[in-house]
Write a structure and sequence with these properties.
The protein has 335 residues and is of the alpha/beta class. It contains 10 helices and 14 strands. It has a 7-stranded parallel beta sheet, sandwiched between helices. Strands 2-1-3-4-5 form a 5-stranded mixed beta sheet, with helices on both faces.
C-alpha cells in the first residue's frame, strides 16, 4: 500500500467522477469513489448533492456480493467523514463493510474531520494511504478548502475590457438599464458555464442601477447561482430583475449592522456573513468600484479577464491590477 504510483490511475478516476457534480454539491466538496478488486473497478460513485449519500456510501451499497469488499481497496479523493451531519459518518460504513485498505487523495479541512477520519479507520485495523495525487485533490476542492481555511468564500474576479482599457461605455439615459456586451457570444456562453459552476454571483449596486442584469446562466443549462448585491446605502431599485427571483442576498449597512459607512468594514462584515451562510464561492462580475475594492484589499483567489479588440474611447475604466498580484492568479481570454 506504500507505493503511490500504482494508485494514481484509480485516484484519477475518483477525480473524473467527482467533477460530474461541479456546482451541485455546495457547501459540500466534490468527491468521487472507486472500489477495486484484483486491479479492476467493481464499483464507483460520486457525491451528487448536499444532504444525499456520500460517494463512499453509494459505492459500497452498489456491491451485492459483500464478501468481495474484504479483499478490495477503496479509493476516495477526500478523507471520509467521521461525524454525523445530514448523513451518517462514512467511516462507520467503511469499517462495517470489512474493507481493509483505503487510499485517500487528501485530508478534509473541516474541523469535524481533518485527520480524525483516518485515525478512526486505522484504529479499526484498516490500512490507510494518504496523499495520492494530493496536489490535484487539493485543486479539485479549492473552494471547499478556502471556506474552511480562510473562513471566506473562494472569490473569482471577472471582467471584459476594450482594447483601450474600458469595461463599459459612458453612461447616459439611453444606455441605462441596458447591458453593453464587449465579448463574443461564445464567451458569454462560457461565462454562463462559470456561473453554473460557482455557488454565487456578485455585483455592486451601481451595476444593478446601470445595467439591471438578470444574473442567470440562461445560455448554459443547470443550476442558477445565488445573486449577491453589495449595496451599503440601500440604493437598489426593488423592481430590478434580481429581486424578481427569491434566490438573492441583498447586503446593506443596516442588514450587516454597520453604523458608519466604511468600505473596509463593509467588505469584512459581508464576507463574514457569507461565510456563516456557507457560501463556498463567488463569481464577482462588477462593476469597477466593487472589483477594485476586492483587489485593493487583496481578497480574491483568481482574476479572469476578457480582452477584446473593440474600442470605446470613453466610459468606465477597467480595474487596476496592483503590481504585487501573482501572475498565476490572472488568466487572460481573447474575445
Amino acid at each position: 500500500m506504500e507505493n503511490h504510483k500504482k494508485h494514481k490511475r484509480f485516484m484519477q478516476r475518483c477525480f473524473d467522477l467527482a467533477v460530474k457534480s461541479h456546482g451541485y454539491t455546495y457547501p459540500n466538496p466534490l468527491v468521487g469513489c472507486v472500489i477495486v478488486s484484483d486491479k479492476k473497478i467493481i464499483s464507483e460513485s460520486w457525491h451528487e448533492r448536499a444532504g444525499e449519500d456520500h460517494a463512499e456510501v453509494i459505492a459500497i451499497k452498489k456491491i451485492k456480493e459483500k464478501r468481495k469488499l474484504k479483499k478490495s481497496i477503496l479509493y476516495v479523493n477526500l478523507e471520509p467523514c467521521c461525524h454525523t451531519g445530514k448523513t451518517p459518518p462514512c467511516t462507520e460504513l467503511i469499517i462495517k463493510s470489512g474493507i481493509k485498505n483505503v487510499v485517500i487523495g487528501c485530508l478534509d479541512p473541516n474541523a469535524n474531520v481533518n485527520g480524525k477520519g483516518v485515525k478512526e479507520l486505522v484504529k479499526n485495523g484498516i490500512n490507510v494511504v494518504v496523499g495520492v495525487c494530493e496536489e490535484q485533490a487539493l485543486e479539485l476542492n479549492k473552494r471547499f478548502f478556502c471556506l474552511h481555511e480562510k473562513k471566506r468564500p473562494y472569490i473569482i474576479l471577472k471582467w471584459a475590457e476594450s482594447k483601450d482599457g474600458f469595461i463599459g461605455p459612458k453612461k447616459n439615459t439611453k444606455t441605462q438599464g441596458k447591458v453593453n456586451y464587449l465579448t463574443k457570444m461564445k464567451d458569454r456562453v462560457l461565462v454562463h458555464k462559470w456561473r453554473k459552476e460557482e455557488e454565487s454571483i456578485l455585483i455592486g449596486v451601481q451595476t444593478l442601477i446601470d445595467d439591471n442584469p438578470k444574473l442567470t446562466n440562461r445560455y448554459c443549462h443547470g443550476r442558477s447561482p445565488i445573486k449577491i448585491i453589495f449595496d451599503p446605502n440601500d440604493r437598489s431599485d426593488k423592481c430590478s430583475n434580481v429581486f424578481k427571483s427569491n434566490n438573492y442576498l441583498h447586503l446593506t449597512n443596516k442588514m450587516l449592522k454597520i453604523k458608519k459607512n466604511n468600505k473596509n468594514v463593509f467588505m469584512e462584515k459581508a464576507l463574514e456573513f457569507l461565510f456563516k451562510k456557507e457560501i463556498s464561492s463567488i463569481l464577482v462580475e462588477g462593476g469597477r468600484f466593487t472589483i477594485q475594492e476586492f483587489i485593493n484589499q487583496n481578497i480574491f483567489d483568481e482574476i479572469r479577464i476578457f480582452k477584446t479588440n473593440k474600442k470605446l474611447n470613453e466610459g468606465t475604466r477597467a480595474p487596476i491590477i496592483l503590481k504585487n498580484i501573482e501572475e498565476k492568479k490572472i488568466k487572460i481570454y481573447k474575445s
